[in-house]
């Protein structure tokens, strides 16, 4: 995961767009709060433009 | 059977693919018996206007090497597509972007700045940059436009076959030549190489697939028998299509991944990161941080030949 993040930084992908958490099936509340957190963080970053290949980026 | 009409072209490439065609040695005479070469800039003096004058679909096969990163290369790719019945994406640059596609980690503006202004060997006090048009007393001069993105051939025009490799090996080239000679080409869209990963054709000993340190190739001399990845070298074998005959690993050099991802793998770099994650022997944060430092340039290592063909394709340009 840290290696993936180092590489994604080279591609200009913000750190907060990728997150790995382990959540047990019994931790419903924690799961919900992680998803909400992540949603808010990504919303704050705004849409991620995909680079689908083109002449000018 | 009438002789085939064969064209070869190079776009953003080093010339190695063209040399590889010559490396088939005396078999080149078989090619000459089989086909009339109607266009081959590295070897024969045909001009663009000769190709332009040919009727559509009049070239039987075109072996196109090199990535597409300029308006000239795009123009010729479209022209050769129209003139050719079968267009072959030949070599890693045409298939996946190749080494030139590492430029996708930067932008055209940054490349110009570095090459014409910052490079220590420059003497350019007026900070002149190449222009696509310039007027001189004799008239207007033009240059092709450099793109921000390095593209694969198939991202620009439809392609019938892919022959990977940096460069494609003699065996693969002969396979293509034989398929042409016997009119036994595979189904359209085929990648002419192996359907397995490089690890499947590597005969090194695989023992205990756990590593605790990653080395760069200049730091150790690896054992000649054991799996290179198990010795801590970043070998792209698990994430790379076979078909090359394991040439690099046979001479103690880890695979760099020039045959692209194996069947079923969408993203070559992501696949290798996943392979490393599963063989790294520690859960200690410090060890992991050290390992991340030991991989000096993950993007350039895991997508050395495959940037254009990867899921991300390039460094994200802010504001787009």
Describe the structure.
The complex is a heterodimer of chains A (57) and B (320). Chain A has 2 helices and no strands. Chain A has 57 residues and is mostly helical. Chain A has a domain at 19-46. The mean pLDDT of chain A is 85. Chain B has 320 residues and is an alpha/beta fold. Chain B has 3 domains: 4-99 and 148-181, NADH:ubiquinone oxidoreductase-like, 20kDa subunit (Rossmann fold); 108-147, no CATH class; 198-302, no CATH class. Chain B has 12 helices and 9 strands. In chain B, the strands form 3 sheets. Chain B has a 5-stranded parallel beta sheet with strand order 2-1-3-5-9. A two-stranded antiparallel ribbon of chain B has the order 4-8. Chain B is globular. In chain B, 40% of the residues are buried. The A-B interface holds A 1-4, 6-7, 10-13, 48-49, 51-57 and B 74, 105, 107-108, 147-149, 151-152, 155, 269-270, 273, 276-277, 288-289, 291-292, 295, 297-300, 302, 308, 312-318, 320.
Span between termini of chain B: 53 Å
CATH superfamily of the largest domain in chain B: NADH:ubiquinone oxidoreductase-like, 20kDa subunit
Shape of chain A: flat
Give a count of the beta strands of chain B, DSSP E runs of length 2 or more: 9
Number of helices of chain A: 2
